[in-house]
Amino acid sequence: MLRGTKLDPPIISAFFKRWRLDTHTFHFPYGECTITIEDINLQLGLPVDWDVVTRPVVSVD
């Protein structure tokens, strides 16, 4: 969960059905929609200005 947001299986399923792997976009009745890094930052509050993760991150607890 992100900041108290709960995952909603019906919504996830609806988005999954509209995802086009060949173009990496969602296809809606009104047209295509691309999610950008800036969208992730603005909508989810996730930082996008740190180091890029290029391999699995292992947590040592």
Automatic annotation (TrEMBL):
Output one GO BP term.
meristem maintenance
Q: Which InterPro entries match?
A: AminoTfrase-like_pln_mobile, MAIN-like
Q: Signal sequence span per UniProt?
A: none
Q: Pfam families of this UniProt entry?
A: PMD
**Where's the Aminotransferase-like plant mobile domain?**
6-57
What PANTHER family does UniProt report for this protein, alphabetically? PROTEIN MAIN-LIKE 2, PROTEIN MAINTENANCE OF MERISTEMS-LIKE
- Which protein, by its recorded name, is this? Aminotransferase-like plant mobile domain-containing protein
